Records
---
Amino acid sequence: MRVLRRIPRPVRFALVGVANTGVDVAVFVALTLGLALPPVAANPLSYAAGMVFSFASNRHVTFAGLPDRVPPAVQFARFAAINLGSLVLTTALVHLLTPSLDPVGAKLAAVPVGLAWNYGLSRRLLFA
């Protein structure tokens, strides 16, 4: 953990974001290509996997050592609410883009929108 604290917090946040996106996309690919789940059904499941990973990683890596202002359950509920908005946005984009892109391409196109939403609201409302 000492090594991680030497890495600036914004860099840790970005690294967690990359890993979180990897979890999300990997689960999405497994569900759509491996299990033949429709993209709109796979997106909420893959997003949830990435969200849980992101919350745990941000609490224990990005913001390690900061005092908890609220209990972890309350913080997770707030985190989940922010992510629900992102899920709605990304699922709508996957739905709209799938006719013109393959499902993975549609997912990858939706990712930046979700990241921008989550970062903006998390920075202002959750980890401020």
---
Amino acid sequence: MLNQKQKRLITALITTTTVKEALQKANVSNRSYYNWLDNKEFVDELNYVQQQVYNDCVMDIRNLSKNAVKLYEKLMKSDNESIQLRAAISIINNAGKFLEIKIHPSHIKEEPKKTLFQEIDELTALLEESGWELSEKGVN
């Protein structure tokens, strides 16, 4: 069974940007962290939690993407040709960018270059640069 420090570190690892930051937040030494990486139970739990966060984020992105596609469909059917043209240009300009976006779980022993949440922030910024706003109800 994991101790409280190990549980605290797992939480910190999924909510911070770097391993160094997570270690500071959880008040865990580098030595303890690297020793725990040899502990199957710790690694299994860390992998499980990371996968859950990843799955939740992917599901959220899928839902937002569905809403965005529905909005584009609505805009493409607009009576206003200017709105249709803007939607079409936005689709063409962003189609490649959306296909290139990949979200990978970070590797345990490496300090991640970007967290999953940073990737989501970048996707949000990309949508906002295109003139769209994200809300809990979808893309506006």
---
Amino acid sequence: MNRLSQDRPGSVTVQSGQRRLGRRAALQALYLIDVRGCTAAQAMAEYAAQFRDSSEDLGFPSALVHGVLEHQEDIDQRIEKVSHRWRLDRMSRLDRSLLRLGVYELLYFGDTPRNVAINEAIELAKSFGNENSAAFVNGILDPIARSGLGPEDGAGVEPSDGAGNDTVP
């Protein structure tokens, strides 16, 4: 993992500091899945072998990883609808993994407030991404969050210019 040193979604109870660590673990696993094409179980096992503190509970990150993979098709459609001139395959693997994690928390993981999901994704982007990652992640997640559309509403997110301004198709 070069750049980055089954519960039901929403049912994992963890304190906020543990959630931050869990998101970091989930990001590392999602990145590994994207780079190597391995399974969630393989990615979480590698994370545990390389980075896990013996007291770290992997229930929360595992739930996030499995949830992202379960809903990846819808998540990817939503990202592509709001990312102008950026297809998923052109995004860095880290940014793509971060966006998938952020969208999953926004739309499917019921107990994370929207502003927390966005802020946590931005903080991860600042920690692991390049100088543009935080703004890029914010520019994609914000319009998805503001759309007010949950998973049951379909992927009909209105496009944005990435600066929080809605655009007319």
---
Amino acid sequence: MRLQTGQMPALRFAANLPVMLALLLLAGCGDGVVQPQPAPESVTLNEPALLASGVVLLTWTPSSAGDFMGYRIYRSTNAGVNDASTPIYSGDDPAVDTCYDYSVSPGTHFYYRLYVLFQEGQPAVSNVVNVAIPP
């Protein structure tokens, strides 16, 4: 293309703009619609049972979410137990509803919290439960 003085080159971008926008929409980009994240299912960690052998039994209702990824249980010696606390269980079978904590110390008070992980969105976080291990 030979330009004469004072002439502007043709703007190919402007001519292709409708095509580019159509491709973005087909690809699912740029549609301006924010997809809402589904609310995580609720999860309840049942009150722990202290077995005669000094082992703590934890139970919960299994997840029925289609995008389930796994369970994580954390333990702490204070009520602020969270996902930075000591992990005691990690599993990816949605049918599992039981965990045993074999590493408890006599004379200690423990707090537990269950996290249910999903492929999309935030984890479901349970209530905090606690148990006192006698001396």
